Amino acid sequence: MEFSYQAIGILHSCFKEKFGIPRQAGLVPDARGTLELYPPFNRREYLEGLEGFSHLWLQYVFHAASMGQDKSTVRPPRLGGNRRLGVFGTRSNFRPNPIGLSLVRLEGIAYENGGVRLDLAGIDMLDRTPVLDIKPYIPYADCRPEAVGGFAPHPPKAVLQVRFAYRVRATLQGMPPLVRRQWARLLVQVLRLDPRPAYYGTQGKKRDFGFQLLDRNVRWRVAGATATVTRLEDSRPGGP
């Protein structure tokens, strides 16, 4: 059987590329995004009652995943990338149907200019991800304290200490206080979980890394168990 689905909206994420995205939702609480709903789903009646929930399930498309080959087994990062498991025994984005599911925090609903925007936090999705559906998180049904977590029974631990080079501290200091605190928290939350591929922890040959986060190019260097942010530069055309 085959089905086709219509995207109800698009996610505008702080993560502009796949490298750096946390491996599960909620691991980076300050990772924010907005869900822009498409017509006709941007009418108020579609969202009536949603404001009473603190968290939402989002179903979406892994639009940047490579789906050209059959992936019956994958290498979960939590197992160091050295052990293969069946795709249905993991939450890998390499799936027979490239559909993702994430639990995110709803921070607000804004109705403006004839449209609607959902402000979200704790996201783990790439910028411009097509969203297929929204469902409210219901604690009594969705939270199961007795559940068994298989090979991932506990959240990942922070493995890197995060520091800022002098020039990055100067850049942060030039920001408004609220923006400065948000940037500092976001950088620490993303980097302390070590977004590098699992094998880098033992290989240790490459030490300099970078990705785009929001409107900034972030460059960082790893030495031992410390990640130092070496550059935080405006990525916008004509930016300072």
Task: Explain briefly what this protein structure is.
The chain has five helices and twelve strands. With 240 residues, the protein is of the alpha+beta class.
- Mean pLDDT, all residues: 91
Secondary-structure element string: EEHEEEEEEHEHHHEEE
CATH classification class of the largest domain: Mainly Beta
From the alpha carbons, calculate the radius of gyration and give it in angstroms. Answer: 19 Å
Major beta sheet summary? 6 strands, antiparallel, barrel
Helix count equals 5
CATH superfamily of the largest domain: YaeB-like
Under CATH, the topology of the largest domain can be stated as Elongation Factor Tu (Ef-tu), domain 3
Portion of residues in beta strands equals 25-35%
Helicity level: 10-25%
Describe the structure.
Strand 11 and strand 12 (226-234) form a beta hairpin. The chain folds into two domains: 9-142, Beta Barrel (Elongation Factor Tu (Ef-tu), domain 3); 161-234, RelE-like (YaeB-like fold, 2-Layer Sandwich). The radius of gyration is 19 Å and the shape is globular. It starts with 8 loop residues before the first strand and ends in a 6-residue tail after the last strand. It has helices at residues 44-47, 139-142, 166-173, 177-191, 200-203; strands at 9-13, 32-37, 55-61, 73-74, 85-86, 99-112, 115-121, 129-136, 161-164, 208-213, 216-223, 226-234. With 240 residues, the chain is an alpha+beta fold. It contains five helices and twelve strands. The strands form three sheets. A six-stranded antiparallel barrel has the order 1-2-7-6-3-8. Strands 9-12-11-10 form a four-stranded mixed beta sheet.
